[in-house]
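Subject: two folds for Thursday's group meeting

Dear M.,

Sorry for the delay on this. The cluster queue was jammed most of the week, so I only got both jobs back this morning. I'm pasting them in the order they finished. Each block is the input sequence followed by the predicted structure tokens. Could you check whether the formatting survives your parser before we put anything on slides? The first protein is the one we discussed after the seminar.
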Amino acid sequence: MELLKQRIMQDGRCYPGGILKVDSFINHQMDPMLMYKIGEEFIKRFSNENINKIVTIEASGIAPAIMVGYIMQLPVVFVKKKKPKTMENMLTTVVHSFTKDRDYTVCISNNFLTPDDRILFIDDFLAFGNAALGIVDLAKQSGAHIAGMGFIIEKAFQDGGNVLRKMGIHVESLAIIDSLDDCKITIR
């Protein structure tokens, strides 16, 4: 997706340790027109999948997931990082955050993730694949089928994409970063 790649090169910032900041247009301040184009691109890439629900994990995946759900006219469910006291029929798994270097117990009600669901998981970043593997675990617990996983940005050098693809999951990344060595952004 050329528009996204241009924006990463223009406004993305690199930090030591393989961190790419895109907080001025994706995950803190958002560009809604870019998000809409991102939603359209995901829909194109997953058009052959029979999807009936969009799933994401809070918080940065919510905006692109809502765009996809809005355009496809499908419900959007987000996996929560804090267990609400009122959640019924809770499924949980542990996810490690690369950016924050901590583990989260994430949860979703199996009222909203069922064996009838063919889900498209949408998130902002794919690095080591920890959040995505958490979704795989939650889908397994609920009996839901993962029709695909879409990521705005994949950091190919951190191998999460390879792990998911080897599992047979249809993965689409709109921009693939091959390297952040010496804080130079190299996009495939």
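Second protein, same layout:
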Amino acid sequence: MKKLYNLNKGLPLFLLIFCCLALVQESVAQINPLKAIYFQNQYLANPAMAGVNGGLRVNLHYRNQWGSISDAPSTEAITADYGLSNKVGLGLNLGQSREGLLKRSRAMATYSYHLPLNQSTRQLHFGLSAGVVNEQIDMDELVGDVDDNTVARFKDQGPYFEGEVGIAYTDSKLTIQGSFPNIRAFLDKSLNENNTINRSTYFAAASYKIALGSNVGVEPKVVYRGVKGYDDLIDAGANLTFVDNQFNVFGMYHSSENVTFGFGVDVKRRLALTGMYTTGSPALDNLTGVKGSFELGLRASLWNAQ
């Protein structure tokens, strides 16, 4: 058998996005998440960040890994987060991924609460996401015994409920955050037995913005991630911004011995385009000769988003 790889006036539009896109889903809970989680779209990794910038932000992401080989992994994602008020945010996190025979879809709705502290720039953020995860095998591509017990158990599990929680502290410079994705999968041992995904178990990060001049800034960041079945992962790097954040270049080193680097353009803080490339890990390169992955991101910021 082939191996299974492993809502005011803006509310109506937000609901329209929710209804129209409810069949699309996202896969951040993997050993190799979308790299936009670091700087471009932190809501991908932490529900507490939904609506933190105010207004409405809609993000589209696409990644293709190892495009030179057949059935190469690919990920498509869309998120929409909206600052309903100064304290309340809503979000929608959708997408899907395909890895060989395995197709994984995920739809999560988010509520976040942003609590001001004793100074206007200091806030605590809390977020909760809930939704559905569905994992399927492409039976048309399966080579082998379709009645195999492993395949049958995987098919029989069906869609299941999932949740995420997150927390963050922010001020004008410092951001400290953490989240726990895949809560039910962590508690339900039967899901652990059937799930072939290398899912994320926790996410923690800290970053600090430093002004280097009137129009230049840098934000170093360190991320600590847990993944079921693997050693904990550390990511470290920085985002360098120019011309009042209209242009940026960034890089992250991963303890899996590979590197992500990219650039972005933000037109009048309304429409931003980001391109990223992640090198392959040495072990994978030596085994397959396949090099890295490309990722594209597009963000539209509406209604006074920061």
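Two things I noticed about the second structure. The helical segments are 11-20, 149-156, 183-187, 189-194, 282-288. The mean pLDDT is 81.

Cheers,
T.
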